[in-house]
Specification:
Length: 274
């Protein structure tokens, strides 16, 4: 056999990324309960908060000034949650089927799997969020798409943060196995109190505001309220969120790749159980 065949292909391959995306897409497409579940929770949350908004609209001046502020907060928060969950659950499916070892005896590189998980996370998030956003129009006369271009910025800023958290969660799963499965569901909610989803950040104690401003989501939700209440897009908030997202994405990737290296060295990819 020639030396060429003995040398692993270390170049990043979009073809391998696309192959992994197709694998996850076929898994999703072949299971209607999974598709229903993606749409179910965002829709239920939107409906619940929509009726709460209708109640508060007549009793709260703050909500009346921008009646869609709570609905928009709910939908934007679900982008962050679904982005992280879509990334992590696709990885968990490989652990459930004990398939990580088989995948990585192929030419697939860890960074290519990360790119595939990001792509399928984007698709799962869109499937989950779009029906809820569209249903809010006839139910509550609120169209989140009227926010315009800022909505695209908010969407990707939250999605990227979800990926960063997903990388950290999958890194932990590589170390502790499926015994840490619950991390995929609750770890993202640690960010809720300091993300200012439903209230301005100045409600928080001063020391906690410093923690909040170290997190990208707070700039998104403060920026969302600036658009709805003042009709302005805060470029300073946008720049801060982009910078922090880059830092957290780099941190998440570093932790995941390090954890993957340790897992491969210790044979944990073949175990993948409890």
């Amino acid at each position: 056999m020639s030396q060429t065949h003995l040398t692993p292909n270390r170049a990043f391959s979009l073809r391998r990324v696309f192959a992994m995306v197709r694998r996850y897409w076929y898994l999703l497409r072949g299971s209607w309960p999974r598709i229903v579940e993606l749409m179910y929770w965002p829709t239920i949350q939107m409906i619940m908060w929509g009726f709460i908004t209708l109640h508060l609209r007549d009793t709260s001046t703050w909500v009346a000034e921008a009646a869609g502020v709570l609905l928009t907060g709910v939908l934007l928060w679900d982008i962050l949650f679904r982005g992280q969950l879509g990334y992590t659950l696709s990885f968990l499916e490989e652990m459930y089927s004990r398939n990580l070892g088989q995948l990585f005896v192929s030419p697939l590189r860890p960074i290519e799997m990360v790119a595939a998980l990001m792509t399928i996370s984007l698709l799962r998030t869109l499937i989950g969020i779009l029906p809820a956003a569209l249903l809010a129009i006839p139910l509550f006369a609120w169209n989140i798409f009227t926010i315009g271009l800022p909505l695209i910025a908010f969407f990707f800023l939250l999605l990227v943060m979800g990926w960063a958290v997903g990388m950290i969660v999958t890194a932990l799963l590589l170390r502790v196995g499926l015994g840490g499965e619950s991390l995929a569901w609750f770890i993202i909610f640690l960010l809720v109190p300091v993300s200012a989803v439903y209230y301005p950040v100045d409600v928080l104690p001063v020391w906690l505001q410093w923690v909040a401003f170290a997190m990208p989501p707070v700039y998104v939700f403060e920026g969302m309220r600036a658009v709805l209440f003042e009709g302005i897009f805060r470029w300073d908030y946008f720049a801060a969120a982009v910078g922090l997202n880059i830092a957290y994405l780099g941190l998440g990737a570093t932790i995941f790749l390090w954890s993957f290296h340790v897992a491969r060295k210790r044979g944990l990819l073949l175990a993948g159980g409890e």
